[in-house]
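In the current project phase, work has continued on tokenised descriptions of protein folds. One protein thus recorded appears below exactly as we store it.

——
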Amino acid sequence: MVLLPRLKLKPGQPIFEQIVFAAIRAFVSGEYQPGQPFPSVRALAADLKINPTTAHKVIQHLIQERWLEAHPGLGTVVAKPPLARLRDRKQLLEHELEQLVVEAKRLGLTMTDLVDGIAVHWSKLDKDQEVANQAWSKLTTFGSGSAVLKRLKA
């Protein structure tokens, strides 16, 4: 089972940041639903072939940022998406968007090209969310036999 399906670790970028981004993308797109079990440190480390310390740091960071919740006896589960903090919005607007615009201009893209590209990715996440919601709904409606899922329902 692939735990973060679209993650392909890239050399030259911090592994921690790549995994955190992939996890948040999976939460935002609906690949992981609130209440769904999240992989353990051991499972994450084994699946991604990373150091367990890195996997632990990723999970702790996602808990601190309120994307995950730790439940004693059940493990770690996906939380309801946290509300954006003011500092997160400022960071997005001041840093990441500036980088995107600079890179787009460097490549000779127009503003229309950039907006169209953003729209495509936005729609893809919305589509992924719909598909994931349907799958999660079927799983929770019909049950999976999973002891963890049964405990979460209780």
